[in-house]
Amino acid sequence: NIMLERVVLLAALVGLVSGGHAPLLRIRGGGEEVANLGRAQAPLKRANAFKIARVLSETFERAPLAEASTKNLAPGNLKLGKKMEGIGYNGGVKSELDDPFLTAYVNLKLAACGVAMSKMANKEESFMRLVEPILKTYQEQQHLLNDHGFALCPADQRIQNFLNEYLKDVTDDVPQLPTRQLKLDRHGLAKMLSLPKDGDSFQNDIITSYRVAQGVLHNPKSDKRTTAGVFHISDGGLPVSYEKKTVPKATFAKILAEALKPPSDLMTLPYTANSDQKAEVYCSLLLRPLACPEVVGFTEEKSNEVRFIAPGSMVSNLDFVESIFGNGDNPDLAENDAALDPEHWTGTTGCVILAPHLIRLKKKDVGLPHISKATELQKRDGMCYEKDDELYNNGGAFKVCARDARGVMVTVIADNYFGYCKKEVKTQLGYTANIYGMTEEEHAGGCMAYPSYDLGDEFWAKDLGKIAGKGSVAFLGDTHKHFTETEKPVTFKDIEKEYAEAITFHEDGYGVDKEYSDIIYVPEDATFSLSSQTVSWKDGAKKISLKPDHTYILPCGYKIEMVKKGDNSVGKKGGTTSANQYTKWHLKGTTAEGSFLHKPATVSGGGKSEISKRIEDMVGYGPVFIGDIGEDFDKVDAIVKHDFSKMMKAGGKSLLDSIGAKDILDPKLSLGRMIQILTPNADYSDEHNAFIGTIATHIRELLCVLKQSYKLEWGDNWRQHYHTDAINGALGHELKIGDGSLLSSYIRVGFRSKHDETIPLKSDDSGKIAWKTFTLRQDFFPSW
Description:
By secondary structure, this protein is α+β, with helices and mostly antiparallel strands. It contains 19 helices and 36 strands. The strands form nine sheets. Strands 1, 5, 6, 7, 8, 9, 10, 11 and 12 form a nine-stranded mixed sheet that branches. Strands 16-17-18-22-23-26-14-36 form an eight-stranded mixed sheet, with no helix packed on it. A hairpin with a 4-residue loop joins β19 (527-529) and β20 (534-537). It is elongated. Mean pLDDT is 79; it is low at 1-93, 471-477 and 569-579.
């Protein structure tokens, strides 16, 4: 009776392996406890089903099952440790991969598939003899389903329906997905099957797997990152991008047919590798990767469905993919049929078929034309041959996919590189996002970037968008004009009317955000001063303290902050981060409206990750150096007084004259426009371009420093505000202003080498030490 109870509970738990479609295998009767065993309830169904299996496992050898009653196995009563959450290393001497219950479970699945089982202990043999009549009944039912075209699980049937329609115009014999599959319906089952039952390693031509303390270590033959010539797409569906190779649809059909004819050694399941009779079977896995997260009140969580089908020896690939994207459970069960839960399904289906043996295919055998009959596109993509023995894709790894607007994508990967499997799921998620809409594909999205500017040490808000009347002038004017122009200027009174519920307004004429006390709202005539550390308005009659870590917002939305420029901890030594010794307080201005920057989409190695990193990590800060202060300032003064009226070619108007600027220090001329004037241009006269060529790099940088720190009230007497210290009786080279230092920022871009065209190293011994650095504009602040 006890053994019979075990059989009934096992059948209920595993849905008799492949979870066939016969009503006999779907236990719906009985009390609540049996229902919980036969069909785990959402949302904890998978976790609880596994916990139930672990309880059964512990009782399989050591105690009668009656002691662990069905009542105690109900999901609400399960309290198991973390070690029971997956198949693998449990921290003890004995591995869960050797669990007697799991080995019986695997043999039950193999028997249900009609393939050879692994070596069994006496108890396992007795158990299998007991369930043999049930298995025979199940197999007969599977034969009937197969005869009537219902042997595939719902997801596979959707894929097969797509292939039937997609390929019907190029072949009368559409390749059929395998009906006999070892479905990996539990997380960790792939890991267990990737090693022989009684062995610690498995090896063939494409993979070597080892048993280790943490579980299993896989070492695939292919471990590379190149994508050159790898991506092939069948025509007749959605448009193919230029960098991909276009494959004739008839060729895709033949490649798919060959993919589903793997050699015998590739089909061998590692779990039975040491058995007298080796199991040759396909392994398959259902994934349900998230495509659209839940947004409360707007949309439910939605996922895509992806089916992986691999020859038995490649079950390690499925172990890898499962470790990233999880396990979608038994694809045969109604509760796992995405089509029966449309609220949580994107309506898209993917299929990935692993077939490394395809690299031996010949171009001629897959229907590619001779070069004499090929189109220009086929010649470009190598989809033709000159010699009869030419291999497809020159015998290299590739993946080819077919997809159209119907929402099904089928990919064949001719390699066992684990990375291709992971990336293919991401690719199919991108396809899902584009088909479903209202979601982001892998390389979609980006960020909102709000341009920021260095405002120096004084700022007059009323000059924002206008030509400054006094103080620092280099970064106002037209630079901000397009950010602040509105049909009707916004005043602080408008803010008081519109945001009374969000802001606490003070009688002195400023406001504090009710939720964030470090956000201060100030009037449109506010003046910011670092020297006095105040924010004042009404011509100084009203004022508050200017504090670090506070944000001051004008009525137009423009934000001003007091920040320590250079304090971004760019240097690392001994595993710790040290702050840059060159820092200085500045006023930072940030625009109210940002720009949406799309994340770039490019192939591997294109630099996506590099340009997604914080630029501050590549920026260093230091003092402004000068040669001889007298001589260098003479050269700067000569440029300031230079006649730019003839800078343009005949008939052209000077950039200074066009805006009525007196010289390049005039507030009507922005720093950017000054840099433009001093940069060679085909529209400039030969004389002006020659003049630009005479300006040394350090003089150009010194001129930008002057433009940054110049104040209108200085007039032509700007030189007296700068100095250098005397060191050992001689003038130093660090330029200072007033009683403080000047700060310059530099960006590091790679290392110098002996192959550099301009200033090469004498040898590469200093490589990875000598940086290539470039000076940033004096008004630069990283966007927020």
